[in-house]
Each structure stands twice: as C-alpha cells, then as structure tokens.
Amino acid sequence: MDDNLRQISSRIKELRDILGIGAAEMAAGIGVPEKTYIDYEEGVRDIPISVLYKIAGELKTDPTVLLTGEAPRMNTHSIVRAGHGVDIERYPGYSYSSLAYNFIGRDMEPLLVSLQPEDKTPALVVHGGQEFNYVLEGKMRVTLGKHTYDLSAGDCIYFDPKLPHAQSAVDAPAKFLTIINEK
Questions:
Q1: To 5 degrees, how large is the angle CA 169–CA 90–CA 141?
Q2: What's the pTM?
C-alpha cells in the first residue's frame, strides 16, 4: 500500500472514530457501499479526490487535514511557490498538486494535474459542483458523457462534473490546471 494513501486512510479512520461515526453511517453519508468505504479506510482501494472531499464534509473538516494531517492556516491569502503544492497520488497515470491547501474555508479547489499516457482508458468519475480544466502542456483527451474532446496547450473546458468524465494524456505527458467547486 502506498505510504501516502496509508496515512490518509489512517487519518480518516481516526477522525471518524473520535467523532463516533460508524462506518455504515459514513458510507451512507458519502453515497458508497459500506464495503467500499471500509476498503478506503483500510487503504485497499484508492480514494477518488471527489470522495475525499465528501468524506471531509461528513467529518466537518478541511480536506487538507486528511491529506497532510495539518489544518490550513491562512484566511486572507495563500501563496504556494512553484513545486510546493501538496502532492496527491490518486489514480495510476494521474498526479495532483493542491495549490490552495493552506487557505481556510476555500470554496474551490485548484489542482495542478500531471497525466502520463496510459494503455487503458481511465475510469469515468462523477462529482458535484462545477469543474474547469486549462491545458498547460501537451495534449489531453477529455471524455465528457458520450463526447470526447482533444485539447492542446492553451485550450480549456468548463463543465458539469455530474456528467461521467475522465482526462487522459494523448501520446505524451500532459499537464493541466483544474479548478473544482464542489458546492
């Protein structure tokens, strides 16, 4: 099991236990089967970023606490220097860097996402809110419902993430900025 995932899973379980919330209640609150939720807590299954935010909501904490073990500290502004975001490894071929992790009560989550070309098509995901993707480097394919779009550096897409969606690199690594508002 990945050490980062182990730490996140451990923090989730510990906070849930402290708050006296049962695993079945948590699973129902985030809308997944209890077995799936237990797999998240045990580090058997990767936790999708959208599910991590739902878990944080149920635990009434900031996602940063689950990701880093520390609470955000800034309430007027937050600066993250190049290469110093909080890294999140969630899916094979994807790596995320949280760019506003230290801002208290943020309404949106800006993430720098690096994609590696993969042989298989990525799983489609859904979550609430709205999502914006801006391609910084390379070329990426965005699957949105039944449609597929190829985007190059400088291109962007804004969409309703309740539609099943996925991003993948085309031919070579790609990098994009995504801003997700779960509200």
A1: 20
A2: 0.81
Q: Are 64 and 102 in contact (CB under 8 A)?
A: yes
- Strand arrangement of the beta sheet that strand 147-152 belongs to: 147-152, 139-144, 165-169
Supply angle C-alpha 109, 113, 115, rounded to 5.
Answer: 155
Residue 157, both tokens: 């897409």
Phi/psi for 132 (5° steps) reads -130, 130
Write down all domains in the chain, each with its CATH number in brackets: 3-68 (1.10.260.40), 86-181 (2.60.120.10)
Half-sphere exposure of 68 (CA within 13 A, CB side): 15
pLDDT in tens, 78-102: 999 998 888 876 666 678 888 998 9
